[in-house]
Amino acid sequence: MKLEDFIQHRPPFRVRFWADGEPLGEVLFKEEPFGQNLSQYFFCEVCDELWGTIEYPNRHWIPTYVACRQHQDGRTEFPGSLLGPVDDINDLPPAVIAREFQIHITQLAKEQQDDRGNE
Ligand SMILES: [Zn+2]
């Protein structure tokens, strides 16, 4: 087997997304994405809900403390968001992008309202 054939035919690196009780799709990478790539579960300390996961194949699970969509914990900028500050959203499943868009818009609108309330 030629190296090129091996690279062409080996199984893809599959990353699965889940949040708010439903699967949000998966991304197949030909190469393992750069970075730490541990499986993450998202956990709200306000209500104890495990509300989201990003699953990498055969990777350890680590907790990520992010408030769920229903709560504010005082340090989560976008409650319910699965994204880190540097994530490139271009590779994500459409359902994840749509959900993140909704979360960010809702949060920004809320902040604007709060600002007006303080004037
Ligand atoms: Zn919560």
Describe the structure.
The structure is a single chain. By secondary structure, this protein is an alpha+beta fold. It has one domain. The chain has helices spanning 3-9, 94-118, and strands spanning 13-19, 22-29, 39-43, 50-55, 61-65. Strand 1 and strand 2 form a beta hairpin. The chain is elongated, with a radius of gyration of 17 Å. The mean pLDDT is 89. The chain binds zinc ion.
Q: Main β-sheet, in a few words?
A: 5 strands, mixed
Mean pLDDT: 89
Radius of gyration based on Cα positions: 17 Å
Can you list the strand order of the major beta sheet?
A: 2-1-4-3-5
CA distance, first residue to last residue: 70 Å
Q: What is the string of SSEs from the N terminus onward?
A: HEEEEEH
Strand content: 25-35%
Fraction of residues in helices?
Answer: 25-40%
- The dominant shape is elongated
Number of helices: 2
Count all strands and give the number.
5
Chemical compounds bound to the protein:
zinc ion
Short description:
This protein is an alpha+beta fold and 119 residues long.
Helix/strand layout:
Layout: H1 3-9, E1 13-19, E2 22-29, E3 39-43, E4 50-55, E5 61-65, H2 94-118
Parallel strand pairs: 3-5
Antiparallel strand pairs: 1-2, 1-4, 3-4
The protein binds zinc ion.
Residues 44, 46-47, 49, 67-68, 70-71 line the site of zinc ion.
Descriptive keywords:
119 residues; alpha+beta; 2 helices; elongated; binds zinc ion
